[in-house]
User: Which sequence fits this backbone?
């Protein structure tokens, strides 16, 4: 993952589960029209599916969108409370 300025990169978690079949154009639409944010900023946008076993992240690198996906073979991502992402900056470092 290459960030232009990693110390200034922000991370946004989408607060609801999404259909994980979405590709870059579907994720960009969510960023623009539901989150009311610009997908062309130095921001890492993170999305989770219903099972919490799959995560997708999208980032504009200045030349195009980068998408990362991780699927857990066991367990689920632990930082959820009541079905919503709950993560602190400490957990990100």
Assistant:
């Amino acid at each position: 993952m290459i960030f232009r300025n990693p110390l200034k990169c922000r991370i946004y978690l989408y607060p609801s589960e999404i259909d994980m079949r979405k590709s870059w154009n579907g994720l960009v639409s969510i960023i623009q029209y539901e989150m009311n944010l610009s997908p062309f900023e130095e921001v890492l946008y993170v999305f989770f599916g219903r099972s919490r076993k799959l995560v997708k992240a999208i980032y504009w690198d200045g030349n195009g969108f980068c998408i990362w996906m991780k699927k857990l073979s066991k367990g689920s991502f632990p930082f959820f409370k009541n079905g919503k992402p709950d993560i602190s900056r400490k957990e990100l470092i």
Q: What stands out?
A: The helical segments are 24-34, 89-92. Residues 89-93 have pLDDT under 50 and may be disordered.
